[in-house]
Amino acid sequence: MTPRWLKAEFKKQGATAVVARTPGMGMAHYEKEPVEPPAGYWRWGEHRGDGYSILLEQRAVWVNSGLAVVLLLACIAYLSLGTVTLDPRDVVQALAGQGDMMTGFMVQELRLPRLVAACLTGGAFALAGILMQTLARNRLATPGIIGIDNGATAFAVASVVGMSVSLAPSAMALTGAATAAVITFGLAAGSGTQGYRFIVAGIGVGAIFGAITQLMLARVAIDTANAAYPWTVGSLNARSGGSVQLLGIGLALGFVAALVLARSLTVLRFSDATASGLGINTTVRRIQILLLSVALTALAVAVAGPVGMVGLIGPEIARALSTPRHVPVVAATLAGALVMVLADLAGRTLLSPIELPVGIVTAIIGGPWLLWILMRPKRSHA
């Protein structure tokens, strides 16, 4: 008796499998028919034998690779330029533990720790910025503009003025950032994290915390105020090694978490009804994204102070280079690190031997950028 074949087709990560079954005999035939990847994508892993593959957006790969190369060149320039100019080849040898002892000391002990701090803080500020902008669906909703930076700064300055524990600024900055976020979210009740009410509430909260910071500095001795002053403008000079290490761990974990939330970030750019229809729990995702953004901002402020404009410039560069299909998490992080490295390099070298704090340099760059965004309200949404 000829068996009756039942054929079923199903898709498994872009590959079509044809299955033929015979009653009582199990699977009789299995054949995979590869499907071409969508236009603008590469497929990776389709021949590994497990039937699963990963789609890589071609433009995202090129943009991320290009930003990584530019960041590497900027780091070499950062280590080479300064009061004493070094040959890039000598810098590479010093990084490998070779070459002149004085060059090695200057590169590894003086400039490299500050470069690491610049990369980590820039990446953290920009990553927090693009998370907050996506959450609020507004390009203006960066941690600096909605008051999180000022809240973290006020608590960090309070720790410098009132205690002498090296890790206290990190813990206090985290507390201040969380406090500012909770107050802003509470004042914007009814609109959530969307709309201009959230931004206006954040601006007000930031102004209050800024005034508290100035009041604390005005009521202490001049030497104490001078010690706390870099926290108010943003500086990478003589940062605590413990705070930098803590930021490195936090940024690594936060970056992985952002990649895990990448699909949700893309969907959250649409309405809540659309996101819910696609299986996203909008309430839980918003809380997760808000907590992640607050933590990254607090850790970055604990190292560099309120360099808030990086959270605006980095995501803008990433969006300008990327396609609108996805939220450019990787590109924003790399762009933020690049902006911070170049800004601190300019602050060290433009008026040498006088040093400009990195926060002042980024404010000079970011101020006109913010005005440009405000002049184009139709493109103000993330």
TrEMBL record:
Subcellular location: Cell membrane
Superkingdom in the source lineage: Bacteria
Keyword Transport in record: yes
Pfam families with a match to the protein in the record: FecCD
Record-annotated membrane-spanning stretches: 61-81, 112-132, 144-165, 171-191, 198-222, 242-262, 289-314, 326-346, 358-375
Membrane topology qualifier: Multi-pass membrane protein
Membrane in keyword set: yes
Keywords recorded for this protein, A-Z: Cell membrane, Membrane, Transmembrane, Transmembrane helix, Transport
Membership in a protein family: Belongs to the binding-protein-dependent transport system permease family. FecCD subfamily.
PANTHER family to which the protein is assigned, alphabetical: FERRIC ENTEROBACTIN TRANSPORT SYSTEM PERMEASE PROTEIN (PTHR30472), FERRIC ENTEROBACTIN TRANSPORT SYSTEM PERMEASE PROTEIN FEPG (PTHR30472:SF24)
Name the UniProt record assigns to this protein: Iron ABC transporter permease
